[in-house]
Design a protein that fits this description.
The protein has 24 helices and no strands. With about 550 residues, it is an all-alpha fold. Helix 15 runs antiparallel to helix 18.
Length: about 550
């Protein structure tokens, strides 16, 4: 075995140890009630220590390969988000998620790009090597696009769904949309070419961004339908859970790869594919296969996330001190916080003025603001795609890389430690609507969500809009009969009829039934009836 292979083996060995530790810390930090540091921060610190030891042992620092991340890790993370999405809550708040996830991310991109260029022109990028570096306009756009990708892992672990359902759905939904938009922004900056600012470059950037977004949605719908067709017509695989898992997984991954080959957003493709598969292909699985597929996708996503955090620590010694500008990193962290503050409270003010169902108070918004200032794995992986072809020199490339790495480490460790304290101080809660009509409760119970869904008063009282009712009508009459096997539809209908009979019983306590279903949803093993009830239909 060559020395290079030996080093790689040692890196993989320590990386696997860190991933295993990450998975266990996720559970045991809650048991031990450790609130002041997130498991991702612990893994980064341990990774840095191991990285330093490896560097002094071989004088060859570990390296993070961005191509491996974008081809073998990111698809698993996004697929896990899409397939396990709690659509009822997400789509109820879809307008606000789009507001923060799309408009907010673009505003963050503009503000961070402006701040990074302004700070550079002021001479804030004073490196440890004794030089004052300056970045070009195009490089500031790369920084803005990369640093617009936030990381919500820490804040999601602190926000309780039963106490703050709207905040939880907004954080999760914005996180998914934000990742997709940030990746699109980086690609659009690359393809538009901003060596100099011109109106042509700007319109090219906007056009590329819009076209890739639209085509990504089309590709995602196409592969989601393909996955549903495959599980419907390959009915013989119904008893082969591993084959069903492989079929759904590889179709989604294939969609991601083909989209990237066609210069379309693979992230949006696999996200939409996961959502469609969850809505249609899920019915074609056995009740046990549903649990296997859902948990497997979550395992792939969590494993990929843990691997990235492990390598973040291991690769932190890749760069020399001469590349590091501590002053610029610190200034950019404050710039991120300020940009996030403007977009969070500015857009919230707009939402309050123009929508009726915006119920987040300032305490919840402050948590949304601080939690959204953390930068993580996506940001670091994105900056690694920016090479010397884009920056013009190896030194400029290294400066951008180490700046983003420093921001990721500082925000994860510092803000990640502040968040639990802030949650303890503000104690975010939401006022939920009172249930005034038992018919609303009955309708909601017939569409209750599986997978630990929490039935809140808002869920029970929220009426369906005209658009929602029309969608349900089209879905039931035209889409489901074509994408779901007849036997599976019959099972769902029987489950609905049984629940309706239960609700029609004399003196039936619909509120007690809601609580029972919520409790039953927490059980890992579900009966066929409960499985079909929870899926029916989350619309």
């Amino acid at each position: 075995m060559s020395e290079e292979e030996s080093i790689l083996s040692v890196e993989v060995f320590f990386c696997l140890i860190l991933v295993t530790l990450f998975m266990h810390l996720t559970v045991y930090l809650n048991i031990w009630k450790v609130r002041y540091i997130h498991e991702s921060g612990i893994i980064i610190i341990i990774g840095i220590i191991i990285g330093i030891i490896l560097y002094f042992a071989w004088e060859e620092p570990a390296k993070f390969d961005a191509s491996i991340f974008f081809n073998f890790m990111l698809p698993f993370i996004i697929l896990s988000y899409g397939f396990n999405l709690k659509r009822r809550r997400i789509f109820r708040n879809i307008s606000q998620i789009i507001l923060y996830g799309v408009i907010g991310t673009i505003l963050n991109f503009v503000l961070i790009s402006w701040f990074s260029n302004l700070l550079s022109n002021w001479g804030a990028m004073y490196t440890d090597g004794g030089k004052t570096e300056y970045i070009s306009f195009e490089e500031s756009l790369y920084l803005g696009a990369v640093l617009s990708a936030s990381d919500a892992i820490c804040v999601l672990s602190l926000v309780q769904e039963n106490k703050t359902p709207q905040l939880h759905s907004l954080v999760f939904g914005e996180h998914i949309v934000n990742d997709a938009i940030a990746i699109l922004l980086v690609r659009s900056v690359k393809e538009a070419g901003f060596q100099t600012w011109t109106a042509g470059n700007f319109f090219s950037f906007v056009g590329i961004f819009c076209i890739e977004t639209f085509l990504g949605v089309i590709f995602g719908i196409a592969f989601g339908i393909f996955c549903s067709f495959a599980t419907r017509y390959l009915w013989e695989l119904r008893e082969e859970e591993s084959k069903q898992l492989a079929l759904m997984f590889y179709i989604a991954w294939l969609g991601y790869v083909i989209a990237e080959m066609c210069q379309v957003s693979g992230v949006i493709t696999i996200l939409i594919c996961g959502i469609f598969s969850n809505h249609y292909a899920w019915y074609n699985l056995t009740s046990h296969a549903r649990i296997v597929v859902s948990n497997s996708f979550k395992f792939f996503g969590d494993g990929a996330t843990a691997t990235v955090f492990a390598y973040l620590g291991l690769t932190s010694v890749t760069y020399t001190n001469q590349d590091i500008s501590y002053s610029y990193i610190l200034c950019m962290v404050f710039s991120l916080m300020f940009a996030r503050f403007i977009t969070t409270f500015g857009l919230s003010y707009f939402a309050r003025r123009h929508t009726k169902n915006f119920s987040l108070n300032n305490r919840s918004l402050s948590l949304f603001w601080i939690g959204g200032a953390i930068r993580g794995a996506i940001a670091f992986a994105l900056i690694l795609t920016v090479g010397k072809d884009e920056t013009g020199s190896e030194d400029d490339k290294n400066i951008l890389h180490v700046t983003v790495l420093g921001i990721v480490i500082v925000t994860t460790l510092v803000i990640g430690s502040i968040l639990p304290i802030w949650v303890k101080i503000i104690k975010p809660e939401e006022e939920t609507s009172k249930v005034v009509d038992e018919d609303d409760v009955r309708r909601t119970l017939l569409a209750v969500k599986r997978d630990n869904f929490v039935v809140t008063q808002e869920d029970l009282a929220k009426p369906k809009s005209w658009l929602h009712r029309k969608w349900v009508e089209i879905d039931d009459k035209h889409l489901k009969p074509r994408l779901i096997h007849p036997h599976a539809l019959e099972e769902q209908l029987k489950a609905q009829q049984k629940l309706e009979e239960k609700l029609k019983e004399e003196n039936a306590d619909v509120y007690q039934i809601a609580r029972e279903i919520a409790e039953e949803g927490k059980e890992e093993e579900k009966t066929d009836l409960l499985g079909d009830l929870r899926k029916s239909d989350d619309r």
